[in-house]
Amino acid sequence: MSVEGPLDPFVTADVTDAQLAFLAVRPMLIRRSRPWWLALFRILEAGGNSTYVSDRGMAKVPNGGVMAKRSITSEIRGDRMADLVVACDIVAESLTADERTVLRLTGAVPEGFLPAVLAEAETLKAERRRNRRAGAT
What we know:
58% helix; 6% strand; globular
């Protein structure tokens, strides 16, 4: 997995290794943040009359303005992507000096990087669920 083409060292000088690693795996993370079952919610949201799935339309905001409401599918995708981005950042911290050099020069992450990111994201999600349950009791 790599960013398209070789990286320019002058362009990447101000970019962290974690950001470069994220850019290398971003297309896969975007696909992972959009599970197939969200298509079912999008179909229900498109019906427009289903307040069970989401309360679509315009929301009143302070000072008399209106704002488009987020759909439940965009909220789910955003939450899933947030977990993946944080997990990518955590896993990128564990890259060795050689792996960081390869990342800087080629834009390629090690073979086990994406599976490690996905596993870390699952751990973060499990922690968030535990914390939510502990706060509810």
